[in-house]
Specification:
Strand order of the largest sheet of chain B: 1-2
Number of helices of chain A: 10
Largest sheet of chain B: 2 strands, antiparallel
Helix content of chain A: 40-55%
Mean pLDDT of chain A: 95
Number of helices of chain B: 7
Strand content of chain B: 5-15%
Structural class of chain B: mainly alpha
Mean pLDDT of chain B: 94
Radius of gyration of chain B: 22 Å
Number of strands of chain B: 2
Shape of chain A: globular
Helix content of chain B: 40-55%
Largest sheet of chain A: 6 strands, antiparallel
Strand content of chain A: 5-15%
Largest interface: A-B, 55 and 40 residues
Radius of gyration of chain A: 20 Å
Structural class of chain A: alpha+beta
Number of strands of chain A: 8
Low-confidence stretches of chain B: none
Order of helices and strands of chain A: HHEEHEHEEEEHEHHHHH
Distance between the termini of chain A: 47 Å
Shape of chain B: elongated
Strand order of the largest sheet of chain A: 3-8-4-5-6-7
Oligomer: heterodimer
Chain lengths: ~350, ~140
């Protein structure tokens, strides 16, 4: 049985799943930038002392699962979300959902994801995809970062739904409970609440020193110490990790800053305040600078650069970015919503 | 980033699928552009894999020096850490940690060895001798 479902490619998996599921349930207006912005997806955090894949823990986006949750909440769409202890129960529930006509979002690990290229298969458990049909014990899968859809066997799907390690999905699935269209007015309200939440997450003093704009500044200053503390080689590996988090599949480039710029432009269609367009260009500038920084970082992890001065320059990129983003979010904070 | 500046350096992912990048057109309006990849991030990924290779080599040496059991080698090879390996085998993390000691490993029951062998997709004999059969 195959549900009537349109595969939509997106830059980021969770945005893509949110767009795919909501479009399918009647929210015609939804786009990737809108889902990302209404879900207050933009973020930055560097968690010192903790390691992932033997590198630093750095994120450019909000915690997995929040974009779908916040976007649905802002648009007043009730959702179903379930985790499972038993693999059998997880599969049965999925089959029941499909039989009831619901395409379903699933959290999965990528290590055993068969259609992913070998080079990308790390133990990363916060990937998302949509299952939209089943036939002869196989499942039809719409993975938003892929150009086309894929087929997975029941065993392959079970294996990725029950991947182990940090953020283990435990078979988690989610979908909108009912089909219902939303009005442009609701989108408008969603945009405003999304921006406000994002302003809080990025510049509120309550977020502490390692998150948001403060976190970018903190990381910039840390990078300057990496060479002496870690040695050039390890420091290079750390920078490579930073670049992967910033640019790898899912970010749309520039650590999600471009998607946010696109969101503010789209927001302008609902709220005609020209400040939104002006602030959008500031996020473009920030994204461009993140990418310039990535080129500097690559010089270091390729071994072409390596002096303390090179690390200082790298750190300064982040300090400059922090200032740009602080100004942009202050402007968003002070914007007059009419 | 301008649309025409979206890099098209064919990388590992580009061979399987193109990815969406957000970029601005000639009027400054955001649009999406498919990308084959970007050198800067391919080399970041290469760097990560080099680190993995080095960790595997170091683990292998440790096993040969009898400082660790072969489980360490297979764990690194599967890009796992103790938490992940505990998850897949069903052991507690403190048990996995113990099993990394050669003496403890040598006394493990067939049943326990089987659990590791299944996760690493090798036979128990190959597990003990650190033999890899590349499929």
């Amino acid at each position: 049985m195959k549900l009537d479902f349109n595969h939509i490619q997106a830059a980021h998996c969770e945005n893509g799943v949110t767009v795919g599921l909501l479009k399918n349930s009647g929210v015609q207006q939804i786009t990737e930038p809108l889902a990302f912005g209404i879900g207050a997806g933009l973020f930055f955090v560097y968690i010192p002392l903790l390691k992932i894949n033997n590198g630093p823990v750095i994120a450019f986006r909000t915690m997995p699962g929040l974009i779908f949750k916040r976007t649905c909440k802002a648009l007043d769409i009730p959702i179903v979300r379930k985790k499972f202890n038993s693999k059998e129960a997880a599969e049965k529930f999925l089959n029941d959902c499909l039989a009831a006509g619901h395409p379903v979002g699933c959290q999965v690990g990528v290590y055993y994801l068969p259609y992913f290229p070998r080079e990308y298969r790390f133990h990363f458990n916060a990937h998302n995809l949509i299952v939209f049909g089943t036939e002869d014990g196989n499942y039809m899968v719409s993975d938003p970062v892929m150009e086309g859809t894929n087929i997975m066997s029941a065993y392959e799907l079970e294996r990725v739904r029950f991947a182990k390690g940090a953020l283990a999905p435990n078979g988690q699935l989610y979908y909108p409970r009912e089909n219902k269209p939303v009005t442009d007015e609701q989108i408008k309200t969603g945009i405003i609440s999304g921006v406000k939440k994002n302003v809080f997450n990025m510049i509120s003093p309550l977020m502490g020193p390692i998150a948001g704009v403060n976190g970018i500044k903190y990381t910039g200053n840390k990078i300057k110490q990496w060479r002496d503390k870690l040695g050039t080689k390890e420091a290079g590996a750390y920078l490579a990790q930073l670049v992967r988090m910033q640019e790898e599949i899912g970010t749309g480039g520039g650590g999600f800053r471009y998607i946010y710029g696109a969101f503010l432009q789209e927001a302008h269609a609902y709220i005609s305040n020209d400040d939104l367009l002006e602030i959008s260009t500031q996020f473009t500038a920030s994204g461009d600078l993140w990418r310039e920084g990535a080129i500097q970082a690559a010089g270091i992890y390729k071994g072409r650069l390596g002096s303390q001065e090179d690390f200082n320059k790298m750190g300064d990129y982040l300090l400059e970015i922090a200032e740009i983003e602080r100004k942009a979010f202050v402007a968003l904070k002070n914007i007059k919503w009419k | 980033m301008k649309k025409e500046d979206v890099p098209q350096d064919l990388g590992a992912l580009g061979k399987v699928t193109k990815e969406i990048c957000y970029a601005t057109d000639e009027n400054g309006k955001y649009t999406t552009q498919l990308s084959n990849g970007w050198d800067i991030k391919s080399t970041a990924l290469d760097t990560a894999w080099q680190n993995v290779e080095e960790r595997i080599a170091a683990a292998k040496q440790k096993v040969l020096n009898k400082e660790a059991s072969p489980i360490l080698f297979f764990m690194e090879k599967a890009l796992m850490d103790i938490e992940i390996l505990a998850g897949y085998t069903g052991f507690w993390q403190w048990q996995v940690k113990r099993h990394l000691k050669p003496d403890v490993f040598n006394g493990l029951s067939e049943k326990k060895l089987q659990k590791y062998a299944r996760v690493f997709n090798v036979s128990v004999a190959d597990l003990k001798t650190m033999t890899v059969n590349e499929a």
